[in-house]
Amino acid sequence: MEWKFYHRMMRNHLGAELYQHSLGVAETAADLALRYRGDRLRAYLAGLLHDYGKVYSSSELRSKAEQMGLRLDRVSLEEKGLLHAPVGAALLPIEVGVTDSAVLKAVAYHTTGRPGASLMEKVLYLADIIEPGRDFEGVEGLREIARTDLERALLAAVEHTIQRVLQRGFMLHPRSVRFRNSLLAGLRKNGG
Ligand code: FE
Ligand code: FE
């Protein structure tokens, strides 16, 4: 893996603040992957790259999506908070040469999650919310749960995200609701 290249490229691409966030997500994702028997280095890479699309404006993201022939649902197109994920994942192979499909999938779904998410997708989703730079009420508790129970931490993380989306008046992606319900169903089945 060309770590020097990826770090330098992302620092230039993202700027200091978003780069700092990405490093936090990368390290947290790597820790979670180690704890839950995932691929540590690829989780780190997914974390480092996950916000690649975030530097573009909504209209830039929409026109890039159109140029690439990316078919996206209404809600994703409306919310930049969602749109940067699928468009970033589609840009990475073209602009950076990243071809690892598990990494790209984790990037594509990092804003909504999805039922049937892979371990890498789960690890990235959670790392984005609990990385060391995050500071919201309850984040410490979330980090604590993440140390012992991935599924329960994910459920709490999705619920946090859904609540924030509602509070801010954004559109809620139906995939987030399905992700939440699938986590809940899994926990209930296992006697939670
Ligand atoms: Fe993001
Ligand atoms: Fe992020």
Show the helix and strand layout.
Elements (H helix, E strand, L loop, with lengths): L2 H12 L1 H20 L4 H10 L8 H10 L6 H5 L1 H17 L4 H8 L10 H12 L8 H8 L3 H19 L5 H16 L3
The chain binds fe (iii) ion (FE) (2 copies).
One fe (iii) ion (FE) binds next to helix 6.
Structure notes:
The chain is an all-alpha fold and 192 residues long. The protein has a domain of 133 residues: Hypothetical protein af1432. The chain contains eleven helices and no strands. Helix 6 packs antiparallel against helix 7, helix 7 crosses helix 8 and helix 9 packs antiparallel against helix 10. The chain is globular and about 45 Å long. The structure holds fe (iii) ion (FE) (2 copies). The site of one fe (iii) ion (FE) has 5 residues, from helix 2. One fe (iii) ion binds next to helix 2.
Low-pLDDT residue intervals, each spanning 5 or more residues: none
In total, the number of strands is: 0
Bound molecules: fe (iii) ion
Q: Enumerate how many helices there are, as a single number.
A: 11
In CATH, what is the class of the domain at 3-135? Mainly Alpha
What structural class do the secondary elements suggest?
A: mainly alpha
Classified in CATH, the superfamily of the domain at 3-135 is: Hypothetical protein af1432
Could you tell me the mean pLDDT? Answer: 97
Instruction: Assign a percent range to the helix content.
Output: over 70%
Shape: globular
How would you sum up the major sheet? none
Order of helices and strands: HHHHHHHHHHH
